[in-house]
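Design request, tokens follow.
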């Protein structure tokens, strides 16, 4: 496993699921970690789990759909950690349907939170010659009649990652993304769908060659790779992590 000893990592949307696994993965590898989320309970539980690794830890409640809150959070995280080496943009508004409300959710959180957090962290990332990792989805690679808004904003993140890589390479900053397939964890949407929408759950399960849904830790491992020196010549890439689901 790559070491991140002495590194400062900010995870936007880091209290549960993939974000929690990413934050804990960095902490286990020696990093100081800051996380934010809206819900106080999961946020504090994850902060305590990160702190158990013995490195400086920071957590703050933040509505990532709010520009002022995003900017304040990133500034506070940088102050608490002493800078930023890695920014992970993981949050999602989970806007799925083709409605004004769902489009607004996705654009505000999946897209603009990524833009705003990046802008707020940019000077720190330039100083550290750091890395950005955005969390997209395999939904961004295909059409979707079930979740058109979600698919579209995740496709936008894939494209924006390309632009970030080109814009920030002269500053010494790498930008990459991961595109997870369907991931299951306690309290997550796919665990809930197992009972609420069994037909959909089973159809997705059957679409994965390995015969199971992914875990947050399997996504986190690739995020850590992309942020590590092992990927020092990798930028502008989106790595699909789906167990062959798109095949």
């Amino acid at each position: 496993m790559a070491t991140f000893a002495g590194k400062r990592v900010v995870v936007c949307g880091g209290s549960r699921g993939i974000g929690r696994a990413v934050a804990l993965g960095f902490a286990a590898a020696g990093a100081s970690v800051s996380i934010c989320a809206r819900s106080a309970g999961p946020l504090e539980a994850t902060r305590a789990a990160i702190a158990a690794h013995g490195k400086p830890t920071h957590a703050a409640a933040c509505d990532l759909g709010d520009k002022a809150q995003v900017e304040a959070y990133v500034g506070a995280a940088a102050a608490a950690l002493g800078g930023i080496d890695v920014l992970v943009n993981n949050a999602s508004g989970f806007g799925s349907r083709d409605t004004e409300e769902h489009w607004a959710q996705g654009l505000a959180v999946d897209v603009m939170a990524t833009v705003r957090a990046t802008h707020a962290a940019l000077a720190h990332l330039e100083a550290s010659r750091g890395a950005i990792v955005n969390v997209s989805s395999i939904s961004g690679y295909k059409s979707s009649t079930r979740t058109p808004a979600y698919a579209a904003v995740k496709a936008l993140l894939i494209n924006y990652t390309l632009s970030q890589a080109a814009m920030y390479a002269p500053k010494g900053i790498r930008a990459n993304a991961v595109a997870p397939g369907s991931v299951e964890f306690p309290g997550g949407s796919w665990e809930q769908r197992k009972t609420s929408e069994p037909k959909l759950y089973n159809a997705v399960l059957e679409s994965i060659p390995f015969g199971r849904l992914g875990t947050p830790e399997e996504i986190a491992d690739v995020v850590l790779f992309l942020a590590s020196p092992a990927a020092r010549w990798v930028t502008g890439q989106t790595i699909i992590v789906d167990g062959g689901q798109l095949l």
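Comment from the thread starter after seeing the answer: thanks! The chain has a mean pLDDT of 95.
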